[in-house]
Amino acid sequence: MLRKLFFTICFITCFLVFDCIESQAQLPAADNIEFDIDYCRFRTSSDVVFLEVYYSVRRDQFKFDYEENRWNAQFEIETGVFQSDSLLAKDVLNNVSYADSLSHITSGQILVDRSAFLVREGEYNLYARISDLHSQRAGRKELKVEIKRIPRENLVVSDVQLASSIKLNRENSDKFTKNGYQVIPNASGVYGIEAPLLYYYTEIYNFIQIEENNQYRMKVAILNSNGDTVRTIMDKMKEKPGTSSVEVGGFNIVSLKSGTYKLLCEVEDIASNQAATNSKKFFVYRAGDFPSDSLRQKNLAAAVDATKFPEYQIYDHLEENEIDDEFDGCTYISSQEEKTIFKSLDLEGKRRFMKTFWASRDRDASTPLNEFRREYLSNLRHVNSRYRTGKPGWKSDQGRVFLLYGEPGEIERFSGSNEGRPYEVWNYFRIQGGVEFVFVDTRGFGEYLLVHSTARNELQDSDWRRWLEVR
To answer: Is there a single domain that holds both residue 298 and residue 284?
Structure first.
């Protein structure tokens, strides 16, 4: 099932064969483009190891030139695998990033790419250089990589790849697709408010096949920096698909505080009583966990003095069901810890909680008005009125998107017919370089479900038009 040698042949034209070792090559010195690099090692059908190298770089670091009615940035990623000062293999990736307007380019947009090499057992130095072909700026990084032969007799868990998204891709093959999954890498390993969903991919080798006991136990857990388990993502028995298996999954990190964690993958072959583990370090960063001293003082003062502003005094007169309804509508901007605390409070506690909840999110605590609160509650009233279909509008897909991303820059509405269902396309021009959300009235009851989006960490379905078919 897992990767056969022919699977890697499509990459071989990008690499220099190991038996044809080049003379020593010197990559140019680094300049000032910052980027992240990571790698994973997987088994092939031979004794060489399949080494994947991942890159991520901020889009706003490149110089965009205006050509043929569009802005574009061009950059090159050059990677070399060295051993004892000899270049064994290299790959050169040429990339172009387009933009309709410079205003669409923001620091939160990340460009990713990937190289692949066939490597024998040994210790290597991996050099990578990213060059902006318009500005001539560059950045360079070096990693030490140890390659060990992956045995064929004992249970093994491969390296764990961290990803920003994973989706099934059985039909179309691209550089990010392996074993039927398109895996978009997160080379930085950093997650947070803007990247709240962590996806992982790993491979398991050398199951023992016994008909009467063909199960294995898979456990995935999060460990903190002390090695303590803070959350178990999965712990269940599975049927073996063969002698090897692919494990993919994802979870929301929003309740994790800023810090360093490990994603631990453990597998136990019930038939052979063998066990194997592997882990991957990742990081959670939430700006709110590290406020500056001045901001901390402002937030603290706002929380303490929240009742002095008329805006917060409204909670002294709201009934408990009204406060509950408001906080329920804040589910997309509240942490799991806040939800747990809120549920444990009585009416007076909830009144105090809501004052500090909003005060801590105020963009300027020194003024009587909390613009963030007013904008959010205005959007909440809008979605509850506009998208209510037997349940509060904030629970709908359109309501969620509106609350998280704001009002769309453009909405395209398509009426239904005998051949197709009604649907809407929401366009956001100032988010991630321009994204869209596609909603379809799949059941004909006026509730539009999200079937596809080009935004990061949202549902992606290149074949979304099948939802329009009336059967």
So the answer is: no
